[in-house]
Amino acid sequence: MARIFFISDTRARYNVGMMNVQPLGGIESTNIELGAALAARGHDVTLATPTDETMKGMGLLNIPLSEIGNVDADVVISSNNLKPFDRVSKSARKFLWVHNPLIIEKMLRKGQIAPLLRHRPHGVFLSNWSMKAASRLLPFKGRSVIYHGISESFRTPTPTAGEKPFAVWASEPQRGLPHAIQVWKTLVAPHFPSAQFHVFGNAAAYLGAAAEGLDAHGIILQGRQPKEKLIALYQQARLFFYPGHMRGGETFCLAASEAQCMGLPVVTSGIGALSDRVAHDLDGLISQDDSELGTMIVRLLSDDIYWTRLHEGALTQRQKLTWENSAIHWEQTLGLA
């Protein structure tokens, strides 16, 4: 058993009691999920988050960030932020969990380079693309890639049977939604008028006047919805459509993997970590250009035999992307196996 200390210094205030009760961002939910998986494997796990209270839940002890200096741990795992390493025991082994792209100019501006030089932690990345994109000049002690697990919320419900000609978007609109809408309007809707593209998230406010009249092209803006409604639509839909967007800096793309776990093939341009998430012609399709995106979507909407093969490939992620598997890989990286 090891004493493992997670530090999650995010903008959002949260605690372990909010898991599966209130919406949480990717960094917040994955800290809780991985911590719980490691606790279930017998480790003593503490998680520091932006909260005012100390509580226990899911096998974790959740403390306020102000209490960081009071924790005695064998291993410290900090998400994105190197500064908390200055407040923990010098003898603890230190790991930076890299959720976002590492940009040297941004790290300099935010004062991250100095603690990196002082502590030289091991860097843990979420994809091969993310690790390769990080400059080799950054002096990590070592580098590893460990995939996230996917919540049981997406791995255990009845998967889709592909009954409806629906495609789904479940990412932030600034991550290339206008491009995806243009592809749908010009290359999908004219060839498959009964198809629908369901967009979850705050798209209407982002698109502004461009949101008007989209329903005429089969584009349905769902707005922000409970996870249960997204899952219910996944259980009817045919595919997940997300080209990707460099500005978004996808380092893992939980949304794509969640959709795969519900049996949805992913149609993408393979930008960023989407080239890790999707195995072309096995559990999704990676296009070379917009024209190919449209052709791929129409084929998955209309060809049942082809769809079934990619659907079955997508479902294999249910067994691969578990938090227990992720915890085992973390143990190996932490030297605990």
Structure description:
There is one protein chain. The protein is of the alpha/beta class and 337 residues long. Helices cover 34% and strands 18% of the residues. The protein has helices spanning 26-40, 104-109, 113-119, 128-133, 152-155, 177-188, 203-207, 227-234, 254-261, 274-277, 290-302, 304-315, 317-320, 323-334; strands at residues 3-7, 44-49, 55-57, 60-64, 75-79, 93-98, 122-125, 142-145, 166-169, 196-200, 219-223, 239-241, 266-268, 284-286. The strands form two sheets. The chain has an eight-stranded mixed sheet with strand order 3-4-2-1-5-6-7-8. A six-stranded parallel sheet has the order 11-10-9-12-13-14, with helices on both faces. Strand 1 (3-7), helix 1 (26-40) and strand 2 (44-49) form a beta-alpha-beta unit.
* Envelope shape: elongated
Contiguous low-pLDDT stretches (5 residues minimum) are none
* Number of contiguous helices: 14
Q: Classify the fold: give the CATH topology of the largest domain.
A: Rossmann fold
Instruction: Please outline the major beta sheet.
Output: 8 strands, mixed
Helices and strands, in order, run as EHEEEEEHHEHEHEHEHEHEHEHEHHHH
Assigned CATH superfamily of the largest domain: Glycogen Phosphorylase B
Rg over C-alpha atoms, rounded to the nearest angstrom: 21 Å
Distance between the termini: 10 Å
CATH class of the largest domain: Alpha Beta
Tally of discrete structural domains: 2
Order of strands, widest sheet: 3-4-2-1-5-6-7-8
Strand content: 15-25%
Q: Count the beta strands.
A: 14
What is the averaged pLDDT score? 96
Helix content: 25-40%
